[in-house]
Specification:
The N terminus is likely disordered. The longest helix has 7 residues. This protein has one domain. The radius of gyration is 21 Å and the shape is globular. Helix content is 3%, strand content 43%. It contains one helix and twelve strands. A hairpin with a 2-residue loop joins strand 7 and strand 8. With 239 residues, it is mainly beta. The strands form three sheets. Strands 1, 4, 6, 7, 8 and 11 form a six-stranded antiparallel sheet that branches. It has a four-stranded mixed sheet with strand order 5-12-9-10, with no helix packed on it. A two-stranded antiparallel sheet has the order 2-3.
């Protein structure tokens, strides 16, 4: 089924510019339908280093497939020699990119034309130094989970959801990855969860950098719709 993305502009993610205006996500009902216009925005996740072992929610292990290495946690799995778990920059969903909707081509944004709506939820990250003697070069692992709901014009099938994860320092983008996440909704179902994990962000911090100067952003980042072709103007013959 052909659909077009509702977000436009050079990049909905807006790295290096003011955040885009927040979309109002639709309420997610238990039946898997989309109704209303008053859902609360997704909450940011606190630092993993601040969570005691017994308070780590199960979705962290579900994203990464194994317990995370948290600084000072004796129960965490052992890392390779020379690799040290360190505190991570804050991670949050970039304002205005937490929800993405598609509609039937040519149908505008009427509620009955909604094909699907995707919403980002919880986030996780894991950080290591690249060597015991190097406290400033780090390797980051970032994950997110979300949900895709079919709208009145949607049907079960496979969909692609564009998710960007970026590490920034102010307006400087240190690393950025855009991934098309495949989401499959089986027959007789109206929703499905999805997850994404990006490994091997390599970030080098200056010794004067504070950890609070760095930020990890996650959000939907669809490509802008193609521009309409320009029609050549015919020159009028002079008499």
């Amino acid at each position: 089924m052909t659909a077009f993305l509702t977000l436009a502009g050079c990049s909905a993610f807006g790295i290096g510019a003011s955040p885009p205006a927040a979309q109002t996500p639709a309420t997610i009902e238990g039946s898997g339908t989309v109704a209303g216009q008053t859902a609360a925005p997704a909450a940011s996740q606190p630092s993993l280093a601040d969570l005691p072992t017994n308070a780590r929610p199960g979705w962290l292990q579900g994203i990464f497939g194994a317990p995370l290495a948290v600084p000072g946690d004796p129960s965490a799995p052992k890392l390779a020699p020379g690799i040290v778990a360190v505190s991570c920059p804050n991670v949050e969903i970039r304002e205005g990119t937490e929800t993405l909707r598609t509609f039937r081509a040519g149908a505008g944004e009427a509620a009955e034309a909604l094909v699907w709506q995707a919403t980002l939820g919880k986030l996780a990250r894991e950080c290591h130094t690249l060597g015991a003697d190097n406290n400033y070069a780090g390797s980051y692992r970032v994950g997110a989970v979300g949900r895709l709901l079919l709208g009145p014009s949607g049907s079960p099938g496979n969909y692609q959801v564009p998710v960007r994860i970026a590490v920034v320092r102010g307006d400087d983008v240190l690393d950025s990855r855009l991934t098309q996440v495949s989401v499959s909704i089986p027959p007789n179902e109206a929703q499905a969860n999805f997850s994404i994990v990006i490994d091997n962000f390599k970030i080098t911090r200056d010794p004067s950098d504070k950890l609070s100067d760095l930020q990890i952003f996650v959000g939907f980042d669809p490509a802008p719709p193609p521009a309409a072709p320009k029609t050549a103007r015919k020159s009028r013959a002079r008499s």
